[in-house]
Amino acid sequence: MRLQKLPQNSAVKICSISHQRFLNSSPVNNDFVSKLLDRRWALSSPDAKINQIKILNSNGGRLNLNGNISFRNFTQPCLNEVKKNQSFPSFYVVRDDLLHPLVNGNKARKLDALLPLLEDNAVTDVVTCGGCQSAHTAAVAVSCAERGLKSHLVLRGEEPDIPTGYNLVSKLYGNVVYVPRSIYAKREEMLATHAESVIGCDGSIIWLNDLMEASLKNHAQGQYRNFLKSDPLESPEKSRKVVIVNEGAGDAVALLGMIRLIKHLSESHLFGKNEALKIVVDAGTGTTAVGLALGVSSLGLPWEVNAVMLADKIDGYKKKEQNLISEFLNSTASAFGKAPIREKNDGIVQWVERRVPRKFGNILKGEVEECRRIAQQTGILVDPIYTLAAWNLAADLSENGEERTKVVMLHTGGTLGMFGLAQRYRSYFRNPEDGVEI
């Protein structure tokens, strides 16, 4: 493994592995992308607000937690501004955290193509899984309830005494069960077993990727399937059709919403197709990063996707990247007759080490206060588990990166997770004047 490093005073390391078979784009695949995105979507538009964050008092280019850094938010930036003419280092934030009060960030993007696919195939129930404070399971629960579908959520670990944050949302909107970590470790077996308990006597079960592949074949052949949803009062006894969605919506269909976002951001009135761009995102399962990078590759853009590794090591993320791309290629090749992108011996995502690596879900002293400072200075709420890591990387890259390369952070939402953290780390959320160090 080789490490590509930023300048010496940056704490960021970008990792890549050679000698593996990954994918890169043919020069341009506009026709393929247009066909792929010609579908019904959950979001009426791929649009999102974009803010520009300028870094003040940057302490000589070294970002840290000492409180000397300050930020200023420009809510109506000029996206065509040439970076080298800026007085202060800056980066842009795509405000996907504002897409929906409960289903926002990358969760809304992952469900963008998924939800219409469920509706068009007369699905009645969805089974998925996640941690106790999973934003994914909460998003699935809310989205299913809004569409008259039933969600069945398998959560890892013990039920908390007081439900808060995403756990509370999951319990309000969906059907929740808790399983021991030993059972949760075998996710596919666990999901299949739970789906069996849901279907009843004459129901059916299908994995989401199988549904996507069949849907793409029909779509390519001009056979559009738009079922009218039946009235449950008229047909209360209809058999259940259960779809299994992987943890974090880590399925190939979730990639489509990210590709749609990349195509939108490359429009001429936004960032355009010609200027160098570094996209920054935090990585839980890694699905979002792979989807963004597939969009970049398919459209032949001079952009780079940088993903901060939060829940696994480099080998795990590379394996996930390979599996997702393989699923995506299998689905699209069977639908369109040939693979739309060619193979190359390097990855399409730059996997980045977190500033201070730690076990997933843990936070460090000072990080809550850093989130608080960012919120007070910019009006943007980030959380210490996910989006603070992306914010820090975006700031580092904007200070230490190439002169003309713009940095764009995708805000992946997750802000309701702060409620769960406040329950677990109570002392970190007390005011400094109370005599407790934050």
Fold and architecture overview:
The structure is a single chain. The protein is of the alpha/beta class and 438 residues long. The protein contains 13 helices and 16 strands. It has helices at residues 30-37, 105-120, 135-146, 165-173, 181-184, 187-199, 208-220, 254-265, 287-299, 314-336, 367-378, 387-400, 417-424; strands at 2-5, 13-16, 22-24, 50-56, 70-74, 90-94, 125-130, 150-156, 175-179, 204-207, 241-244, 277-283, 303-309, 342-344, 350-353, 406-410. The strands form three sheets. Strands 1-2-15-13-12-16-6-4-5 form a nine-stranded mixed β-sheet, with helices on both faces. The chain has a five-stranded parallel β-sheet with strand order 9-8-7-11-10, with helices on both faces. Helix 3 links the parallel strand 7 (125-130) and strand 8. The chain is globular and about 65 Å long. The model is unreliable at 1-27 (pLDDT under 50).
